Automatic annotation (TrEMBL):
EC supergroup of this enzyme: hydrolase
Native species: Nocardia kruczakiae
DHHA1 domain ranges (all copies): 231-331
Pfam families noted in UniProt: DHH, DHHA1
Keyword Cytoplasm in record: no
Keyword Cell inner membrane: no
Domain DDH intervals: 23-164
A molecular function (GO) term: 3'(2'),5'-bisphosphate nucleotidase activity
Gene3D superfamilies the record matches: 3.10.310.30, inorganic pyrophosphatase (n-terminal core)
Key words of the record: Hydrolase
EC numbers: 3.1.13.3, 3.1.3.7
Identification of the protein by name: Phosphoesterase RecJ-like protein
Stored InterPro entries: DDH_dom, DHH_sf, DHHA1_dom, Oligoribo/pAp-PDE_c-di-AMP_PDE
Amino acid sequence: MTAVTSSADPAAAVEVLAAARSVTVLCHVQPDADTVGSGLALAQVLHRRGVPVQVSFAEPAELPASMRSLPGVEYLVPAEQVAARVDVLVTVDCGSVGRLGALADRIDGAATTVVIDHHRSNTRFGDVNLIDETAESTTSVLARLFDAWGEEIDRDIAHCLFAGLVTDTGCFRWGGPGTHLLADRLLATGIDGAGITRTLMDTHPFGWLPMLSRVLGSARLEPRAAGGAGLVYAFVYSDDSDGLRSEEVESVIDVVRTTAEADVAAVFKQSRTDAGCWTVSLRSRDSGVGTGDAVDVARVATGLGGGGHRYAAGYTTHGTAENVVGDLLAELALGRES
Ligand SMILES: [Mn+2]
């Protein structure tokens, strides 16, 4: 039995992974390029070492289209095919057990669980917790893990690591000095950084434009929210996104958050199967090093049952459109009382 550890130092995780006889890597539900890029990069390293490895996520049933060209997709298996018992289970970019969805039960079938993440709200649910909340992406944490392990970052692995880095930094808007050093190193392997970025972030079907028109046309501004910091929000109703991918829906927050009059932006995304269920994306203007005075949306999201980062977070909630906005306004007011 491994003693529970929690650290930004990769040594304990390296020790477990180097001795692993079989590995399952789990990404979070509604996967993004950071969790999938992390999972596939780790799978490639393990496969190279001769270790049987499966990568999966609980939902949706299929990998988002923008990520299907990532190297290592051959290690992905449908959720129902994930082995019940495994030597080592690794979760990547998951702040809590809940982010594993229906695959959370696989933790019970693993001899050792390793949690690799960069979310400040991470609940340290592994036996070994490699958490670096200063890292800009989970793929950045993995780059340090591979270095400590002595595992080479080849071109295909670099492609996966770059995918997480470019998306989690909003195309390098939110990086520190180390961000660009890592990007430089990954690009030096010969990957097509511009092509990877275009595929992941800058390619949408034509139907995205009328969807944006409807959704942005319904945006509202609450200048008095969060003690005067201001909230801007919009709703994506399920019929707004008919025939569109998650990539189109997830892009809306990046337009809404540019509003000058609000420090906090929210997008309420209605479930396609339950009209009273919403997943909510939050962004704060507090997005860079040394800008610690704005609203911490990780705190707000955690208060509403979710989690995330200081400047980007989310949660799932239930109610009418009016009620879910009211709940958010109440939570924003709470943090501004003292
Ligand atoms: Mn991430």
